[in-house]
Amino acid sequence: MLRYYTAGESHGQSLVATLMGLPAHVPVDFAYVNRELKRRMGGYGRGGRMKIESDTAQFLSGVHHGETIGSPIAILIENRDWKNWQQSMSVEDLPETREKYKAVKSPRPGHADLAGCLKWDFPDARYVLERASARETAARVSVGALAKLFLMQFGIWVASHTVAVGGAALADEEVPFEKILALRDVQDIMLSCVDAEVEARMKAEVDKATQERDTVGGTFEVVAMGVPVGLGSCAQWDEKLDGQLAHAVMSIQAVKAVEIGTGIGNAATPGSGVHDEIGYNRGEGRFTRKTNRAGGLEGGITNGEPVVVRGYLKPISTLRRPLESVDFETRETVKAAYERSDVCVVPAAGVVGEAMVALVLARDCPLLLLDEPLAGLDPLVRDALLKGLVSFVDLERQTVVLSTHEVSEVEPVLVAWGGRRLLTVGSDHTDRELESRSIDAAKAACPAARLWLGSAPCSPWAPMGAPGVVHKMASQWT
């Protein structure tokens, strides 16, 4: 299971991220990781802190000679602002440093200040805001970049764009993924919107909030392209992939709602206008959809369409025109504390959203169900997927159930895995396979097998088609 943790405070010496479970031999593009950190720092409406910091990932363990080695990965990101806080945020309790301590005496409405002080019994909000700050997300982006590099080995790409800032929003229509992906290469990030005219209106929303000494929120959308069928499960509540994605995106600071596909609008729309009609492409041997309102997930399981997740971001709670609050010590009405902050962070939140979605999709799976995994893919994506299977699937720990009509195309995988507990079942495509075997007979023939290759027509299961073969196998024998 892919696991990650972060540590560090907003004005502490550094941030630290650890990532466990990433297999060995994943190529690490250090420039890519640092570019992701730079993307998080960008965007119109960011505050003065971004002029101080220059986030760079320092790999302390788990990566050598440009690739992962299978051990825990530790990443350090220095806080350049630390030089201004060494005394007030000193680790040691000394008289000269205690005098420099900067108390936050009145909690900010909307921030973790009050709830955290009540939980941990702090007399002021300094230590709460230090950890609750979105500065922590730089650490998430660093390990999320590694998850994205891993997913790329399988032809899976994750990108984001800004859908709305304040009252300025894109039209309610699907945006081509190529346009979203192109935003990653923009050097001077404005608001990460694919439409220049809408982006100009978004900028006006930020300018208005700045002039009024206020803040503005918005919506970002994360899209994962190339995600195969079958990730997630409907068997248990905590195995549903849409629930895991919602949890991950909801954990981002200031996100107050998460949407899968067009879920919010679907609630007010008749079923006939919501559910994605199903077709079948015989040439490619795969099921198709006319629309993707489900966001690539049905029953908590990916259905082969792009995975689409939106995060709804409230305005930042630190205001230059503070709201009413209460003094911690006197309990008298005062204005809320002010800490240097941003006006708009929607594009940056989208980058964090990419990291969280990638970390969920890249988790280690004990069972891989691959139903026609090459259907409809161009040669370059097919090659990436096959290389990823050969390099990163561990048959000692994972079971693979592969159903395909294109046995010759998966030959590199079969050759690489051959002799490592490989069983092929039922087909008229190749004499390597065992025809007309029942599941019980196949199990008896090779009880230790960890890979099943099923290729319809397969007489005991022919009425089910390839997907039925895969799920029948998976349900009865893994």
**Strand pairing plus helix content: what structural class?**
alpha+beta
Which CATH class of the largest domain?
Answer: Alpha Beta
Give the strand order, joined by hyphens, for the main sheet. 8-7-9-15-10
CATH homologous superfamily descriptor of the largest domain: Chorismate synthase AroC
Work out the helicity level: 25-40%
User: What is the CATH architecture descriptor of the largest domain?
Assistant: 4-Layer Sandwich
N- and C-termini, Cα separation: 18 Å
Overview of the structural elements:
This protein has 478 residues and is an alpha+beta fold. It folds into 2 domains: 3-250 and 314-361, Chorismate synthase AroC (Chorismate synthase, AroC fold, 4-Layer Sandwich); 367-476, no CATH class. It has 15 helices and 21 strands. The protein has helices spanning 30-41, 49-52, 95-98, 113-120, 126-132, 137-152, 177-182, 196-211, 241-250, 263-266, 346-361, 379-392, 411-417, 439-445, 465-476; strands at 3-7, 14-20, 58-61, 63-64, 67-68, 73-78, 157-165, 168-169, 218-225, 255-260, 278-281, 286-289, 297-298, 301-302, 307-313, 324-326, 333-335, 367-371, 399-403, 422-425, 451-454. The strands form 7 sheets. It has a 5-stranded antiparallel beta sheet. It starts with a strand and ends with a helix.
Short description:
This protein is an alpha+beta fold and about 475 residues long. It is built from 15 helices and 21 strands.
Descriptive keywords:
alpha+beta, 478 residues, Chorismate synthase, AroC fold, 2 domains, 21 strands, 15 helices
Topology:
Elements: E1 3-7, E2 14-20, H1 30-41, H2 49-52, E3 58-61, E4 63-64, E5 67-68, E6 73-78, H3 95-98, H4 113-120, H5 126-132, H6 137-152, E7 157-165, E8 168-169, H7 177-182, H8 196-211, E9 218-225, H9 241-250, E10 255-260, H10 263-266, E11 278-281, E12 286-289, E13 297-298, E14 301-302, E15 307-313, E16 324-326, E17 333-335, H11 346-361, E18 367-371, H12 379-392, E19 399-403, H13 411-417, E20 422-425, H14 439-445, E21 451-454, H15 465-476
Helix pairs in contact: 1-6, 1-11, 6-11, 9-11, 12-13
